[in-house]
Specification:
Length: 51
């Protein structure tokens, strides 16, 4: 019985860790996309100035 309980706890902890890692990856991707959009806006502004 004790072994089963430990197995369940370890499984839950593993799932929790996986969810946290996935959330971190999603947040990192979103941040990269916003940074890229800002850089594109800057490029577009500089293009408008040169013409």
């Amino acid at each position: 019985m004790e072994g089963l309980l430990m197995l369940i706890l370890n499984t839950l902890l593993g799932l929790l860790a996986a969810v946290i890692v996935l959330k971190g990856v999603v947040i990192a991707i979103e941040q990269r996309q916003t940074v890229r959009k800002k850089q594109q806006k800057k490029r577009n502004k500089s293009r408008l100035k040169t013409t």
